[in-house]
Amino acid sequence: MMKLLHSTTSPYARKALVVAMETGLERRLELVASAPFAPGSDVPETNPLGRIPALITEGGEVLYDSPVICEYLDSLHDGAKLFPHSGGARWTALRRQALGDGILDAAVLNRIETAVRPEDKRWAGWIARQDAATRRGLDALEEEADSLGESFGIGQVTIACALGYLDFRFPRPDWREGRPRLAAWYAGVETRPSLAATTPRE
Ligand SMILES: N[C@@H](CCC(=O)N[C@@H](CS)C(=O)NCC(=O)O)C(=O)O
């Protein structure tokens, strides 16, 4: 069995679980509930960066971060690949993954700013900068929303996890406002069993 350090609130850990479900690997994966922000967290004993997801392979190697784990899982099955092997499709998929991860990075930073950092230590300019990055990222997704429906690979997995995280932590303003094509794409994919079963929850 592989072990995945996971939590139901982490959008990056969700990516790994969604990939496992999309590729039929879920039965080989044991989920280890992990709380990287808890005082005395044991996550650093597995991942020196103290972050989840981290994957312990059947051979005992530890892999991180989510792009590496997702590509590793995708190498373990013979079905349709979520990471195109080569060519333009590969670079598009990796860029989309980076765009989804980047939106998440900005949103997670702001979540930490507002939920974890003491109020007197907050920096409004930093929060505004992350908000702007999130908005621009979403606008870029709206521009390419019509071509997202062509397949469901690592780019789409990551983008769906990013949008699901925004719904979970930043429901207002709703990212759908002014982005009808992205909203329509998301409405079509969020009912996939892999996404429906992994909706973020406390
Ligand atoms: N780039 C990493 C980001 C992972 C990450 O930031 N995970 C968060 C949970 S959502 C975490 O463990 N944070 C703990 C920390 O930053 O100390 C990935 O894609 O896996």
Please give a structural write-up:
The protein is α+β, with helices and mostly antiparallel strands. It folds into two domains: 2-74, 3-Layer(aba) Sandwich (Glutaredoxin), CATH 3.40.30; 87-192, Glutathione S-transferase Yfyf (Class Pi), Chain A, domain 2. Helix content is 53%, strand content 7%. The protein has nine helices and four strands. The protein has helices at 11-22, 43-46, 66-74, 87-115, 124-143, 145-148, 154-169, 180-189, 193-196; strands at residues 2-6, 29-33, 54-56, 62-63. A four-stranded mixed beta sheet has the order 2-1-3-4. The model has no long low-confidence stretch (mean pLDDT 97).
How many domain modules? 2
Uncertain runs are: none
Strand content: 5-15%
Order of helices and strands: EHEHEEHHHHHHH
Query: Mean pLDDT, rounded to whole units?
Result: 97
* Reported CATH architecture of the largest domain: Up-down Bundle
Helix content: 40-55%
